[in-house]
Amino acid sequence: MTPPRVLTVAGSDSGGGAGIQADLKTMLALGVHGMSVITAVTAQNSLGVQGAWELPADAVRAQYRSVVDDIGVQAVKTGMLASAELVRTVADLLAGTAAPVVVDPVGVSKHGDSLLAASALESVRTRLLPLATVATPNLDEVAQLTGVRVESEEQLREAAEAVLAHGPAWVLVKGGHLCGDAVDLLTDGSAEHWLRAPRFDNRHTHGTGCTLASAIAARLAKGDTVPEAVATAKDYVTGAISAGFALGSGIGPVDHGWALTRGVPRA
């Protein structure tokens, strides 16, 4: 039987901890068939991003059509889109695809390197976010997109409302940069789901955002509701963070394969 198919539209991380590489590992771990549209190539390791080169819009469009028109998709996840032109290109493609879309509005890498041109922010707001079934910004990305700066758990609701104003059906505001437990808020403007997990004393967290968004997309492809998909994805990424490991001389990645050896259900 063919497994559910999930397409990631994102940049390549040569170090293997984030981006396309993290997405495909997550999809494999959660029992779906992962496919990819590469939007940019980065020279990246545990210390940071040494270079980034976006692909032409025609190359992105051709990859997308090649996969969707022949193989089909049950969910799409977007990550690093780099430029306004690529954001518009991907938004046009998504608008014609009947599948849930998880938008991870990647703006800055774990090491603080910019991965989205400032000129692209308006296109993300007006073209990409309105297509999202779920948007998954972290606090830095919330500030980039809305100007709302969150310094406490109580402000997560304000941040979510500001992102929802741009049109996604649901928003998951990730509060991982706050002190205390790792708490996130999922809401569609009516229902609220607060997701809380312990914070681990582990600095090797490269790829958490990509991993979480891809896990949500995988679960949506399997038929979960948005709250179900996000709760399961949160559990998966919490385990991956706890098992994160040293790699190189900087920040190592989360362990995408931890669920394969510790018995997390794939069904």
- Low-confidence stretches are none
Q: What is the number of domains?
A: 1
Gross geometry = globular
**Alpha-carbon Rg, integer:** 17 Å
Give the biggest beta sheet. Answer: 9 strands, mixed
How is the largest sheet built, in terms of strand order?
3-2-1-4-5-6-7-8-9
- Average pLDDT number: 93
Termini gap? 14 Å
What is the count of DSSP helices, taking H or I runs of 4+ residues? 9
CATH class: Alpha Beta
Coarse structural class: alpha/beta
**Total E-strand runs:** 9
> How are helices and strands ordered from N to C?
EHEEHEHEHEHHEEEHHH
CATH superfamily: Ribokinase
Protein name: Bifunctional hydroxymethylpyrimidine kinase/phosphomethylpyrimidine kinase
Pathway: Cofactor biosynthesis; thiamine diphosphate biosynthesis; 4-amino-2-methyl-5-diphosphomethylpyrimidine from 5-amino-1-(5-phospho-D-ribosyl)imidazole: step 3/3
Catalytic activity: 4-amino-2-methyl-5-(phosphooxymethyl)pyrimidine + ATP = 4-amino-2-methyl-5-(diphosphooxymethyl)pyrimidine + ADP; 4-amino-5-hydroxymethyl-2-methylpyrimidine + ATP = 4-amino-2-methyl-5-(phosphooxymethyl)pyrimidine + ADP + H(+)
EC number: 2.7.1.49, 2.7.4.7
Task: Provide the fold topology.
Blueprint: E1 5-13, H1 19-29, E2 33-45, E3 48-54, H2 57-70, E4 75-78, H3 84-95, E5 101-103, H4 121-128, E6 134-135, H5 139-146, H6 156-164, E7 170-174, E8 182-187, E9 192-197, H7 208-221, H8 226-242, H9 258-262
Parallel strand pairs: 1-2, 1-4, 4-5, 5-6, 6-7
Antiparallel strand pairs: 2-3, 7-8, 8-9
Helix pairs in contact: 1-7, 2-3, 3-4, 5-6, 7-8
